[in-house]
Amino acid sequence: MFSFAGDRSVKRHEGARSAPPGNLRVTMNSVSVRRSSAVLPSVLTFLVIVASGGLLMMIEKGMLNTMEAPGPRAMGGSSRVRTAMSSNHDSEDVDLQVYQDIRNRTIKAMCSQPNMPHNIWALDPVQRRTLLKHILVNDQYGFLYCYVPKVACSNWKRVLKVLSGALENVNVNIKMNHRSDLVFLGSFKQAEINYRLKHYFKFMFAREPMARLLSAYRNKFGEIESYQKKYGVEIIRKYRKGYIKDSKIAGDDVTFDEFVRYLLDEDVEQMNEHWMPMYNLCQPCAVPYDFIGSYENLERDADYVLQQVKAPSSVHFPERQAWYKPITSETLHYYLCSLPQRLLKELLPKYILDFSLFAYPLPNVTAAYCRH
Questions:
Q1: DSSP 230
Q2: Is 314 exposed, middle or buried (0-12, 13-18, 19+ CB in 10 A)?
Q3: Spatial CA neighbour of 219 closest among 304, 294, 303, 151
Q4: Phi-psi region of 136 (alpha: psi -120 to 50; beta: other; left: phi over 0)
Q5: What ranges in 123-205 are assigned the alpha helix state H?
Q6: With contact defined as beta carbons under 8 Å apart, do 47 and 106 qualify?
Q7: DSSP string spanning 100-142?
Q8: Could you tell me which residues are beta bridge partners of residue 145?
């Protein structure tokens, strides 16, 4: 495990109490990784495969599905990578470190390309607007949080409201209002935005892309009437034969196959936030995040963030509700393998930046594996 620069939190809290200076330029700090001659050929091979378009072939062959996902990545001012592994990974061999090095070098290599945005002002207006309305601000504790729907963002919003005094504690039994008592980075002027990007602790949380997608599908189309009416009706009319003119469609029985067909026809930058790729929501190449946590290690990583922002010891991350039903590997396998192979081959590339940049292995969806 690597630590952050020792004076970061001091500077952050001093900055949070001072007025933002004008025209501060935000640049992406490079990520420093361990140089090892043993992994260099593998790194070059991996990048050549990505650059040549061979990644699609690897998806079809299932060649990447044996990769283990590294722990969350710490980035930004310290220019170091924090490897945060869960306890059941303590005994993993050196191969995992090789995969981590490949993944870390990949995010550095991909984000350093000339065509990638190196700060938020390099984004086009639509991309920047999406980003700024997903970054929440806490000036008192000096941090920015980019929220990703279906990655515990409701609980993080509870934490922010407790820190701002809008909620007494994280366990208050109220329906979450996702707009009130929250401060969005997009509400500030450019100089104020730049100041906070430079001085505040910046973090986000990522989740296995297909598990996040399945969670959104089951929640929105299985439980939320407004989504059934707004999206479900449209999806059924468009992708279910014989229903184009049916006026009695409720939209509450959208199949996963139909949902995926709908996604394949959607422009990622115009998607609903619950299934928009994490990359498009939080732009990790344009924003030098100090920490990228993992939904799969949520409790541990949330505790780490609260320590970094010096939150009061009385503030803790909420426990999952008793009614919460996790997306298990078996459930995900069932849904993905129920899709036609053609749809899978089109779906995974649509979220490929989420897999590669956030260090998640591609799911094994080969025909041979799905038969088991």
A1: I
A2: exposed
A3: 151
A4: beta
A5: 125-132, 153-164, 190-199
A6: yes
A7: HHHHHHHHHHHHTSTTS-SSGGGS-HHHHHHHHTTEEEETTTT
A8: 136, 203
Query: What is the secondary structure of 28-39 as a DSSP string?
Result: PPPPP----TTT
d(CA 279, CA 120): 13
- b/e map 238-247, b = 16+ CB within 10 Å: ebbeeeeeee
Task: Determine which helix (DSSP H) or strand (DSSP E) holds 356, and give its type and residue range.
Answer: helix 352-357
pLDDT at 257: 97
Other beta carbons within 10 angstroms of residue 226's beta carbon come to 10
Which DSSP state fits 269?
G
Nearest to 284 by CA among 111, 135, 65, 155: 111
Q: Per-residue pLDDT tens for 70-111? A: 344 454 443 333 344 444 445 433 544 455 456 567 777 889
pTM to 2 decimal places: 0.76
CA 208 to chain centre: 8
Q: Is 204 helix (H, G, I), strand (E, B) or coil?
A: strand
Alpha-carbon span 150 to 274, nearest angstrom: 7
* 134-171 CB burial, b ≥16 within 10 A, e <16: bbbbbeebbbbbbbbbbbbbebbbbbbbbbbeebeebe
Q: Which residues of 8-44 are buried (b: 16+ CB within 10 A; e: fewer)?
A: bbeebbebbeeebeeebebebeebebeeeeebeeebe
Q: Work out the angle at residue 356's Cα, subtended by the Cα atoms of residues 338 and 152, and round it to the nearest 5 degrees.
A: 70
